[in-house]
Amino acid sequence: MKKQINLIAVIFVLLSLPALAQSVDSSWHNKTLPDSTQKLQTASLTVVITDLNNDKGEVRIALCNSKENYESGNPFMKAAAKIRNNTATFTFEKVPFGTYAVKFYHDENMNGKLDRNLFGMPKEDYGFSNNATGNFGPASFEDAKFEINKTSLTITVSAQ
Question: What is the 3-state secondary structure (H, E, C) of 138-159?
Answer without folding.
Answer: CCCHHHHCEEECCCEEEEEEEC
